[in-house]
Model the fold of this input.
Amino acid sequence: MEFKIVQKTGSKNNLYIIDDEKSLKQITELSDKERKYVADCISKEQLSITVNHYGSYVFISFLKSKKTESQTFESCRKAGAEWQAAVNKFKLSDITIHNLSALSNAAYLMAEGISLANYQFLKYRSDAKKITHTLKTIWFTKQAITLKDLTQLSVITEAVYKARTLVNEPVNYLTATQLSKEISALGKEAGFKVTVLNKPQIAKEKMGGILAVNRGSILPPTFTIMEYKPAKAINKKPIVLVGKGIVYDTGGLSLKPTAASMDRMKSDMSGAALVSSTMYAAAKMKLPLHLIALVPATENRPGEDAYTPGDVITMYSGATVEVLNTDAEGRLVLADALHWAKRYKPEIVFDFATLTGAASAAIGEYGIVTMGTADDTSKQALNNSGMRQYERLAEFPFWDEYGELIKTDIADLKNIGGPVGGAITAGKFLEHFTDYPWMHFDIAGVSFVTSKRNYWTTGGTGCGIRMILDYLSHYGKA
Done:
């Protein structure tokens, strides 16, 4: 998708964003009769109107303010998703957005919805050429967007696209090794350093969590380290992002029991896709921040010498863990990465993972479950970013009592906590391996959808990328 500012001529197909009927007078290409038609549609609560000029189209999007600013922003994105469908239905290759409303960023938001809805994953479709969307370019009038915002929109859209593609790739292509190669390619393109540890190096480091989960696979694990450090970084200590990279999850010997529960398990590396694509965007946007990202990656299969319920494993930190369910594997690989992060003496650490069905069951697809030890200022900043991007955060309680549920007589802790508070006990397990300000984001409910939903396309969503980039963009600002 290309984004351009009109110099002399843009597209002959124009989308006008208005918030009152007076604005219709500014749309000179409408006749008086057409203007009256549009006004009549608006009076009947029809907010999206198309005028066919037989060779070009005029699209009118009437913007109505919602209860909150974040809801108004989201209504623009959703309207954009609707216009994306219309533009491709008419087989248009481009469109020009005009903002005649009082909402200064309306054109940005509308284009965001259009572009995110326009993503397709057609790599394995033999009819790809036939079904590829026709829309390729979004133009803006000079008054509708700044060059800085246009560049940001382009980079973030591309980052979400890249994350979605990684999630949509099947494991017969995207092994742990291939994932590390894809991340290396992102680093080369965007300009950040990538280091990949192979299985012998992981074994030398004694990363017991990663090695245990990998025992059921004939394919090796990887541990990928990304670093972006601009010359004038404003943070003295790095911000560290950790992403779960389980490229496929069968549940191991604790095989997933429910119908269709494995169908989408290629998406269990959504956290890895999120943090690597965030690094890509941050480097492309030249954010003045020292950032590090870590991705522990492997499959979780029941073959070979698979680890078993009842095993006691020694983690990278030296802590011992009684494994009572091999399907609680994500926390094992994340724990090794969180311990690794200690060497950086980080400012703050964020981990992103499709960690628990409990998080998804609790709040569904409407937000991201979060918890952790960061201070209230950081939590508020994250919440503000989540609201602005409508990738909302639901903070769960993190009381000490939940930590009691993962105690065991056999080892230092166990990898499941019982039938209650599953998302929180998983977070408490991870906390054991941290000694720095930290937040955990359980993206299980939002990482993957089985059918198109507004600007989320079928498959990987990339949800969480815009939220964390918003947070990083505002980092250090009052």
